[in-house]
């Protein structure tokens, strides 16, 4: 009984951490456009990541004792993650074509590919985002919600939150919210079935990596 009580308390603390961090990140993201113009470009770029990921990282550190057990990988996670990334990106391409009549395409790069472009197109979304967002959303938030409500409602709530946060940070569009919701549901289901973050982290890297590949100015 004592062990169950401790587990319940740990889960409740994790949920509070996740909700508070998410609320702060959303508030900062909503206020960011009002003051980003006052900063030099480099500082503005750094601040855009800090306001979005900073609260999540703090919550992950504070709630490490809860979500660390999900941070496991197996060889099969590479295959599952590849499937998640491919399917979710395909949903995004179909959604964009249905909405705009155009397929995703590369942009025009003037003056060559800069280090900043590589960071914002590859390093941040393909490397950093999976390592921050998956432990937070699928580990801390979905994991703690699953202890308070049934796993499927927890998966759906987490996926919706994931999609909404990205539309707030990146700008509202039907294509974006459909794509992010599709990825969130697939990643959440993989974590629900395997009890591991491995498939979701690999899937997130593949999902964002495909976007970088499609839009890269070859």
Automatic annotation (TrEMBL):
Q: Which domain of life is it from?
A: Bacteria
Q: Does the keyword S-adenosyl-L-methionine apply?
A: no
Q: Which UniProt keywords apply?
A: Membrane, Transmembrane, Transmembrane helix
TM ranges: 45-68, 75-98, 110-132, 152-169, 175-192, 197-216
A family per Pfam = Rce1-like
Query: Mind telling me which PANTHER family this protein's record contains?
Result: CAAX AMINO TERMINAL PROTEASE FAMILY PROTEIN, SLR1288 PROTEIN
- Where is the CAAX prenyl protease 2/Lysostaphin resistance protein A-like domain positioned along the sequence? 119-209
Name of the protein this chain belongs to: CAAX prenyl protease 2/Lysostaphin resistance protein A-like domain-containing protein
């Amino acid at each position: 009984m004592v062990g169950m009580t401790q587990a319940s308390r740990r889960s409740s603390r994790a949920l509070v951490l996740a909700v508070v961090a998410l609320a702060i990140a959303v508030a900062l993201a909503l206020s960011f456009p009002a003051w980003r113009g006052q900063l030099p470009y480099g500082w503005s770029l750094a601040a855009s990541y800090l306001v979005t990921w900073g609260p999540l990282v703090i919550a992950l550190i504070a709630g490490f004792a809860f979500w660390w057990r999900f941070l496991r990988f197996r060889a099969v996670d590479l295959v599952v993650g590849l499937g998640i990334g491919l399917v979710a990106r395909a949903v995004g391409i179909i959604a964009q074509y249905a909405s705009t009549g155009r397929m995703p395409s590369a942009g025009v790069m003037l003056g060559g590919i800069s280090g900043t472009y590589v960071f914002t197109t590859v390093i941040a979304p393909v490397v950093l985002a999976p390592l921050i967002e998956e432990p937070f959303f699928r580990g801390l938030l979905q994991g703690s919600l699953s202890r308070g409500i049934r796993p499927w409602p927890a998966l759906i709530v987490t996926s919706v939150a994931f999609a909404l946060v990205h539309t707030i940070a990146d700008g509202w569009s039907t294509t974006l919210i459909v794509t992010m919701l599709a990825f969130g549901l697939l990643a959440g289901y993989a974590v629900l079935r395997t009890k591991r973050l491995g498939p979701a982290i690999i899937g997130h890297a593949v999902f964002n990596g495909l976007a970088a590949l499609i839009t890269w100015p070859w």
